[in-house]
Specification:
about 350 residues; alpha/beta; D-Maltodextrin-Binding Protein, domain 2; 2 domains; six-stranded mixed sheet; five-stranded mixed sheet; about 15% strand; binds (2R,3S,4S,5S)-2,3,4,5-tetrahydroxyhexanoic acid
């Protein structure tokens, strides 16, 4: 297993490894035990969402389904946890969609930079037919997609220079997620992208293996990146969803009423997580600046220039995908009432 817990430095409550103290139930008395793991630490709204899921499932089944929660990559990184779901040795994980492209190609469309004009459109499309289709496509991979959660718009931090325009990406060595679209897009901008698992990122920045990284504000602040990064820019370059995944083997073994219950719980806990995520954002920017990070505001004009530079990357990947799927996806964005 990975030792991600050691790489972040903001795990203020290390003893809270599995939410045990928040539950009146126990695994010994349950018919089903769900081991649920995430890569982020227990300060992130994603963990609060996971605890909400635990509460809903345990109360809804009167303790017959028990949920053990793990954070900080205690059970492995996103990719390893998805593999464990396929094997049936872990029941739940909630990765960003970017590493899911290694299992289902179509997920790559979600990594297209500057695809969704705002969060509401993104959630509208994901909770509609296109999102349902993406969830269903996981079944061939022995996983069941239960709900969409939100990581959020990704922003840039680095330890070298303020990034205000596309030119400022030149020469920066940036950690990216393990995803072809991200690799291509950052190369196109003139940076040196270095894909690596999330659990290795903090140390890589600390040791100077990479100059910077990109993640939503909540991760940047709550994982303590201000200790190793000097500059933050609100590039908003990619909207990053989380997808709530369950092992198909485990799901298929549940009675039908429990299947519906975990589905509803994942959805409801997700709505809570998304609200928490969005509420925190403004506060977090102030807190980041308070820690001494220099904030560079990216203008709409500069963002448009970045978008124009990476557009050929989107077009190239779109061409390699099922044309009908891509067309319908773009239509769904355009036709969203939040657009
Ligand atoms: C990344 C992602 C991650 C999440 C999480 C660790 O940068 O944004 O923060 O997928 O599961 O790797």
């Amino acid at each position: 297993a990975s030792n991600g817990a050691d790489t972040g430095n903001n795990d203020e409550n290390e003893s809270d490894t599995n939410g045990e103290e928040d539950s009146e139930y126990s695994s010994a008395e349950a018919s089903y035990v769900i081991e649920a793991g995430i890569g982020l630490n227990n300060q992130h709204p994603q963990y609060e969402g996971l605890l909400r899921f635990k509460e809903l499932v345990e109360e809804g089944t009167d303790g017959d389904v028990y949920v053990e929660t793990y954070h900080s990559s205690q059970l492995g990184d996103d990719r390893q946890m998805m593999e464990a779901l396929q094997l049936g040795s872990q029941e739940v994980t909630i990765p960003s969609t970017a590493p899911v492209t290694n299992f289902v190609e179509e997920y790559a469309i979600l990594d297209f930079p500057f695809l969704f004009p705002n969060e509401e459109v993104a959630m509208d499309v994901l909770n509609g037919e296109m999102g349902d289709e993406l969830l269903a496509s996981l079944e061939d991979q022995e996983m069941v997609g239960l709900a969409w959660w939100e990581n959020g718009y990704r922003d840039l931090t680095n330890s070298v220079q303020p990034v205000a325009t596309a030119d400022d990406f030149q020469g920066l060595t940036l950690r990216t997620m393990e995803n072809e679209v991200h690799l291509a897009a950052f190369s196109e901008l003139g940076a040196n992208p270095t894909p690596m698992a999330f659990g290795e990122l903090f140390t890589a920045m600390q040791q100077g293996t990479v100059d910077g990284q990109e993640n939503p504000l909540a991760t940047i602040y709550l994982e303590g990146y201000y200790e190793v990064q000097d500059h933050y820019s609100n590039t908003n370059h990619v909207y990053s969803p989380f997808v709530f995944l369950m092992s198909k083997q485990f799901y298929d073994g549940l009675p039908e009423d429990y299947q519906q219950l975990v589905r509803d719980a994942a959805q409801e806990a997700g709505e809570f997580q998304i609200e928490e995520n969005r509420n925190q954002n403004e506060e977090l920017l102030d807190a980041l600046v308070e820690e001494g990070v220099e904030y560079t505001e990216v203008t709409d004009e500069a963002r448009q220039e970045m978008a124009d530079i990476v557009q050929p990357v989107n077009d190239r990947f779109a061409q390699e995908m099922d044309q009908d799927f891509v067309d319908r996806f773009y239509d769904a964005i355009e036709n969203s009432e939040y657009n």
